[in-house]
Amino acid sequence: MKKGLMASIITLSLFVISACSNDTNQIDSFMHIHGLEYSQHDESIFLATHMGLINLNEESWELVGEPEHQHDFMGYTVIDENVMISSGHPGARSDYVDPLGVIISHDSGETWEPIALYEEVDFHLLHVNEGNQEIMYGIDVYNSNLYRSNDGGYDWDVVDTAGLPGPVASVLSLTSHPQSPDYLLAGTETGMYESSDGGQTWALKENNLSASSFQTLDSDSEDLVAYLFGEKEGLYLSEDFGETWASLNFKVDDDYIMYISNHPTDDQKIVLGSMSQSIYETKDFGKSWEVLAEEGKRKN
Questions:
Q1: What does each C-alpha distance from 34 to 252, 279, 289 come to in angstroms?
Q2: Any idea what the Cα angle at residue 47 is, between residues 42 and 49, rounded to 5°?
Q3: Which of 9, 70, 99, 28 is nearest to 297 (CA)?
Q4: Cα 2 to Cα 180: distance, rounded to the nearest angstrom
Q5: Contact 28/61 with Cβ under 8 angstroms?
Q6: Is the Cα dihedral 69, 89, 254, 261 positive or negative?
Q7: Is the distance from CB of 91 to CB of 68 less than 8 angstroms?
Q8: Among 246, 214, 222, 203, which Cα is nearest to 131's?
Q9: Backbone phi and psi for residue 148, each to the nearest 5 degrees, phi listed first
Q10: Three-class secondary structure of residue 53 per DSSP
């Protein structure tokens, strides 16, 4: 197993976003990816960063919302056409207090409001089950706890995590089975772990294999895309939720893919965000790739 991935993530957290010199919301560079998701309105991509949410499209990159809603988003996830959920820290122009807890937007990121655990948690990982979006899991880095919600993020319970190597905040990736949301996979620096009881107890699944990111592809299958490291390295597809893996023939050198998003209507499109702030997109399920950003700078 490779070591030092968590240390590299922490080092990169010192970077901040870079904007254009004019007074508009348009930008051409950024630093520190905290999440990315396809828009459910069009072909654009939402990128969560240290200083706000950015909408990436072919014409321009633009910060979303007024300055008071441009937060340091963590665990960012799109729920449906207009609804997004996240965690993190308030922006410099915000009246909110740190940490934000769980926040929600009903207007595609233009405005946000806390709905749970305000001033209590900072979920660096916030996973929404593909088959039942009422069920969510969050990993709080403040107190190093795993939380679960059964009502779409409004109420949360701390979950005991017996058998999961600590601290819990060091978990790199987390996903749940679309049809069996109590079954979880977690990627750590010491291997891949599994839980069949909603995270209460864990067992080592793979000693020489782990994942820096997971993404379930739909609610009806067991299809799972992951960026693996260890005895397998690169982007892989599993059609049985992690039991077997087939390579998608994509690997980044001296880097890790930390975020994976699949398009809501086009099953050939996947976008990836890396630890070194590069963004890659495929429109043919991995046969070819386009670099949208390289080390935080837009590719023309």
A1: 18, 12, 22
A2: 160
A3: 28
A4: 30
A5: yes
A6: negative
A7: yes
A8: 222
A9: -135, 140
A10: strand
Q: Which residues contact 31 (CB under 8 A, 6 or more apart)?
A: 12, 15, 16, 17, 18, 49, 50, 277, 296
* CA–CA separation, 222 and 176 (whole Å): 10
pTM: 0.92
Contacts of 257 (CB under 8 A, 6+ apart): 212, 213, 227, 235, 272, 273, 274, 275
Structure tokens at 272: 């990836």
Asked whether the beta carbons of 165 and 156 are under 8 A apart, the reply is no
Nearest CA among 232, 191, 228, 215 for reference residue 267: 215
Question: Is 172 in contact with 148 (CB distance < 8 Å)?
Answer: no
What's the CATH fold of domain 27-298? Methylamine Dehydrogenase; Chain H (2.130.10)
DSSP 8-31: HHHHHTT------SSSSSEESB--
**pLDDT means per 10 residues in the chain (300 residues)?**
58 41 73 93 94 93 97 97 97 97 98 98 98 98 97 98 96 98 98 98 98 98 98 98 98 97 96 97 98 92
Domain ranges of the chain: 27-298
- HSE value, Cβ hemisphere, 13 Å, CA-based, for 237: 13
The tokens for 6 are: 């968590």
